[in-house]
Design a protein that fits this description.
Layout: H1 6-9, E1 12-14, E2 17-19, E3 23-29, H2 43-52, E4 57-64, H3 84-96, E5 101-107, E6 129-130, E7 134-135, E8 141-144, H4 147-167, E9 171-176, H5 181-186, H6 201-219, E10 225-230, H7 241-251, E11 257-261, H8 265-272, H9 284-291, E12 298-300, H10 307-315, E13 321-324, H11 326-330, H12 334-339, H13 354-362, E14 390-394, H14 398-409, E15 413-417, H15 437-453, E16 456-458, H16 465-471, E17 475-478, E18 482-484, E19 497-499, E20 513-517, H17 521-532, E21 536-541, H18 554-565, E22 567-570, E23 573-578, E24 581-585, E25 591-595, E26 598-601, E27 605-607, H19 609-615, E28 622-624, H20 634-646
Parallel strand pairs: 3-4, 3-13, 4-5, 5-9, 6-8, 9-10, 10-11, 11-12, 12-13, 14-15, 14-17, 15-16, 17-28, 19-26, 20-21, 20-26, 21-22
Antiparallel strand pairs: 1-2, 7-8, 18-27, 23-24, 24-25
Length: about 650
């Protein structure tokens, strides 16, 4: 078979280990950590799913090497805790059995100990150690490590690496980026020591060299050691790309692969973890420049999920390997699909940050578009149904499509009824916002998967009691969605008003000055888009804060964009629409005109309960999913659709 992406699919040898392709799964923290910091029972499956999906290497993260000075509740590996070594051995085996190379990230948070604790107050009581004494911008004091502690940490890196090799891991990654401890010693912003570990460039390198040498001594020659570094710290006072290249060159004799990431936790989280507003591959230039200065293979990362882009990165010599994290949560089968020329079936990551918000919020893992993530122990395959049934799904939004697809994968005969002429539901409106195009694309991908699964899709066909009586389904899934709320304001039906759901159909109606009524997630993102287009945007919200329905990771970057692109009016209630804009009542009770040639109404959605009530008795087994049950988000629609189909 001739592969469409030959460079991306070609094997590579690093150290003495062979990797089946150039697509590696980047470090991501496991699903569950036991009270004594062992690998929990759900975590091996979390990594195994991506090994089954075809990734050449799968890296477990983060293994804390020195708990005495990094007192986070994170993974440990020692011989003192019963079952600890065994838990890591089972994890390595879960990856290796599928032909992937199991790797593990050796880490020390340094001054950021406790970052991922769900109890945010607890981290204030931890001992925060770093290269130098200082007080973090969030008020947490940091204590400089003594030389005796440094020596003990260096020793611990080697001891932990040896245990990783003993457990069956075939590569280790030393985390020297993102503001973690090794990076803190490399950084002129954090390292102000006056001894042999600070001051000159060579002294700032010393800790990293000692750590890498300790690891090499422990694992021996030929065992791949990967250096994960920030190609540039990307904040004032940190090192730039030129110095990043010097660091990579100065350390390459001790490593086999240089993984060029970006940024620093406290000052550049959204440069390390690119949001939907950033171009895909925005950090690849760092790897490309570093590759010019080293002889060892270089890995690139940065919001990658497009096979064509990744093929170009390898083919053009910008990097030798590409890493993906969130993309392989959204679709663990991405590498297998690329290898088999099935790229049109890839479910793209939305870069919505649900996965990253879930961990500090609940301590679990979740992905908006993949209901398996974090729950792999419950089953990684869609099992055939014991009894095949006739199933009807009413509604072709994301929840309905996921339900129909899953039911078909179980062997049921499935008909999907969609009253409009196009699948996708509310996702159709996202095609007008470039930074949310992948949400629209999700609908297209699911539609393609429905076709391949043999689902009978009937467009322009509304589910009615009469039709359902004729079809006589044994199981009925109601996914009839929601409708936009249109407040009964004078003038709201005017030609200068656009409902946000219809913006993609009526873009030409929007003038150069716009009032967006409604400061929820949809309103904020619409306001940002219009501002990016150069329009003067006013954002009106009756509550005292914006985007309260937004997750904790996406919200900060969204608020930064809102501040840049819109004028915000909180605690303003809309009264009437006029040709000049929106008349509101402010919190003092005064009437004020918010000027704008166009008003975009984005005040929310209402469940289509009338449709549900009309259809809920039309089959012996009925399930309501998504917005028609309770207005929520893509995540819940996908989960509910998937599990409804599993219940049939």
């Amino acid at each position: 078979m001739e592969q469409k992406y030959p460079h991306l699919c070609s094997p590579i040898t690093i150290g003495r280990v062979n990797f089946r392709n150039r697509m590696f799964s980047a470090p991501m923290g496991g699903t569950d950590i036991t009270a004594d910091c062992c690998v929990g029972p759900r975590t091996p499956g979390f990594y195994e799913l991506r090994a089954k999906g075809g990734a050449a290497a799968v890296t477990a993260s983060e293994l804390v090497v020195h708990p005495e000075t990094d007192a986070s509740h994170m993974f440990h590996l020692d011989l003192k805790t019963p079952g600890n070594l065994a838990s890591w051995t089972f994890l390595a085996d879960a990856v290796a059995r599928h032909g992937a190379v199991p790797s593990v990230e050796l880490s020390h948070s340094g001054q950021y100990a406790g970052t991922y604790l769900v109890d945010k107050d607890k981290k204030k009581g931890l001992a925060q150690f770093g290269p130098s004494d200082w007080v973090r911008p969030d008020g947490i004091p940091v204590k400089a490590l003594a030389e005796e502690q440094i020596a003990d940490i260096v020793k611990a890196y080697g001891e932990t690496a040896a245990l990783c090799k003993r457990a069956g891991f075939q590569m280790v990654m030393v985390h020297a980026g993102h503001g973690w401890l090794v990076n803190q010693f490399l950084s002129p912003a954090f390292n102000h020591r006056a001894d042999g570990y600070g001051g000159s460039f060579e002294n700032r390198l010393r800790f990293a060299r000692e750590v890498l040498q300790s690891v090499r001594d422990a694992v021996g020659p030929g065992f791949p050691i990967e250096l994960r570094m920030s190609g540039a710290e990307l904040f004032e006072g940190g090192y730039d790309l030129a110095e990043g290249c010097e660091i990579a060159h100065a350390l390459e004799d001790l490593v086999d692969l240089i993984h060029a990431s970006a940024g620093s936790y406290q000052f550049g989280f959204f440069r390390t973890h690119l949001p939907m507003f950033a171009p895909h591959g925005d950090n690849v230039h760092l790897a490309a420049e570093i590759k010019k200065h080293v002889s060892k293979p270089v890995a690139a990362i940065g919001g990658l999920n497009d096979p064509a882009q990744m093929e170009e990165i390898i083919a053009s010599g910008k990097a030798d390997v590409v890493y993906m994290a969130r993309a392989l949560l959204a679709d663990p089968e991405l590498p297998n699909k690329v290898m088999a020329n099935r790229e049109d079936e890839i479910v793209r990551c939305l870069r919505c940050f649900t996965c990253m918000a879930e961990r500090p919020t609940t301590g679990t893992r979740r992905c908006t578009v993949n209901p398996l993530i974090g729950r792999e122990v419950e089953g990684m395959e869609v099992r055939p149904a014991a009894v095949k049934k006739n199933v009807v799904v009413a509604g072709g939004g994301v929840g309905g499509m996921k339900a129909a697809l899953t039911a078909a994968q179980r062997g049921h005969s499935v008909i999907l009824l969609e009253k409009t002429g196009e699948l996708g539901g509310i996702l159709k409106s996202e095609q007008a916002l470039p930074f949310k195009y992948e949400m629209y694309q999700l609908g297209l991908t699911l539609a393609r998967q429905l076709e391949l699964a043999g689902v009978e899709v009937r467009l322009n066909t509304e589910a009615t009691p009469e039709l359902l009586h004729e079809l006589a389904p044994e199981a009925l899934i109601l996914a009839v969605g929601s409708s936009p709320i249109v407040p009964p304001l004078p003038g709201i039906d005017g030609d200068n008003v656009v409902i946000v759901n219809n913006y993609y159909l009526e873009k030409e109606k929007v003038g150069d000055s716009v009032v967006v009524l409604g400061g929820g997630l949809a309103g904020c993102e619409c306001a940002v888009h219009l501002g990016m287009e150069g329009k003067a945007v006013h954002l009106v919200e009756m509550r005292d804060s914006l985007a309260v329905d937004c997750n904790i990771r996406h919200r900060p970057i969204l608020m930064e964009k809102v501040d840049r692109y819109a004028t915000v009016h909180l605690e303003h209630a809309g009264l009437r629409v006029t040709p000049e804009g929106l008349v509101c009542r402010d919190k003092e009770g005064r009437e004020v005109l918010i000027p704008g040639r166009t008003v975009v109404c984005a005040v929310g959605q209402r469940s289509n309960r009338d449709a549900v009530m009309a259809l809920r008795a039309c089959a012996p087994w009925v399930r309501e999913i998504g917005d028609c049950n309770r207005v929520s988000n893509i995540t819940n629609a996908v989960y509910q659709g998937y599990h409804a189909a599993l219940d049939i």
